[in-house]
Design brief:
mainly alpha, globular, Ferritin
Length: 253
C-alpha cells in the first residue's frame, strides 16, 4: 500500500465526518429552541464545515489529479463518501443533536490531541486548529446534556432515548483497518485503543453527572461507512447539499 493513497483515504474520512455532520447541524439554523442556541448551532456547523474544507483541500493536494475541495465535496456520489453512519442520521430533536455532538466531539478531542503528534506536519497543523474548536464543541454539548439529563422528567426521558438510539453507532468511531494501521506505522497517526480509553472516561463522567444510563456495549454496532456503505439518509442529504453546484458546474462565485 502506498502511503500517498492511504493518506488520501484517511483525509477523506476525517473530512467527510465533519462535512456531513456540519450540514446536518446547519439544518437547525432558524429552528433552535432559543435564539442564543440557534446561533451556537450555526457556529458549530461552520466549525465542522471549515475543518472539512481544510482537510479536503489537503486531500486534493495529496491526490494531485486536478480536483479541488469543492470537487471532492460536491461531485462524489454516496458510495464514495467515507463518513461514519452516526453523522448522517437526521437531526431528530434537540436532545438527539446534542447527544450526537457529545459522542462525536468527545472522540475527536482525544483523537486530535494525539493526531497533533503525527509526522505529517500539515496534518498536525490542521489537527491542532481543529482541537481548539473541538474543546468548545465538547463543552457546549456537555453543558446541554447535563441540563437536559438533570432537567424535567420529559427532557430526561428524551435525551436518554436519544443516547440509546445513537449508541449502536459509536463502535464505528474506533474501527481500524489496514489503511489506518499503515499510517500508524508510516506517519504516527494515533492508535485508537488509547483514544477509546479517554473517550470512555469522558462519556462515563458526563453520563453519571447527568443521571443518564450508559447503554450496553454488547449490542450490534453499526459499521461500513468507511468503505462507502451508508444508511438511506445520506443519499437524500447529498442530493440537497450538492444540488446547486451540480446544476451549475461551471459557475464561478
Amino acid at each position: 500500500m502506498k502511503t500517498k493513497d492511504a493518506l488520501f483515504e484517511f483525509l477523506l474520512r476525517l473530512a467527510d465526518d465533519r462535512l456531513v455532520l456540519g450540514h446536518r447541524t446547519s439544518e437547525w439554523c432558524g429552528h433552535g429552541p432559543i435564539l442564543e442556541e440557534d446561533i451556537a448551532l450555526a457556529n458549530l456547523a461552520l466549525d465542522h464545515i471549515g475543518q472539512a474544507n481544510n482537510l479536503l483541500e489537503y486531500a486534493a493536494e495529496v491526490e494531485n489529479e486536478g480536483r479541488d475541495a469543492d470537487d471532492l465535496a460536491y461531485f462524489r456520489n454516496t458510495r464514495e463518501f467515507r463518513n461514519i453512519k452516526m453523522v448522517e442520521l437526521p437531526i431528530g430533536d434537540f436532545g438527539f443533536t446534542i447527544v450526537r455532538e457529545l459522542l462525536f466531539s468527545a472522540f475527536n478531542l482525544h483523537y486530535l490531541d494525539r493526531l497533533k503528534q503525527t509526522s505529517d506536519k500539515q496534518l498536525a497543523g490542521l489537527a491542532s486548529k481543529a482541537y481548539s474548536e473541538t474543546q468548545y464543541h465538547l463543552r457546549h454539548s456537555k453543558q446541554w446534556t447535563l441540563r437536559l439529563g438533570d432537567g424535567t422528567d420529559e427532557s430526561h426521558r428524551r435525551i436518554q432515548s436519544s443516547l440509546n438510539e445513537l449508541w449502536p453507532y459509536t463502535g464505528e468511531l474506533f474501527d481500524e483497518d489496514e489503511i489506518e494501521e499503515h499510517l500508524v506505522f508510516e506517519l504516527n497517526i494515533p492508535n485508537k485503543e488509547p483514544v477509546r480509553s479517554g473517550w470512555n472516561q469522558t462519556i462515563n463522567e458526563v453520563l453519571e453527572e447527568a443521571g443518564l444510563e450508559r447503554p450496553a456495549d454488547d449490542q450490534y454496532m453499526q459499521s461500513g461507512g468507511r468503505t462507502g456503505f451508508h444508511t438511506e439518509h445520506l443519499g437524500s442529504m447529498l442530493a440537497e447539499m450538492q444540488q446547486l453546484p451540480r446544476a451549475y458546474p461551471d459557475a464561478e462565485w
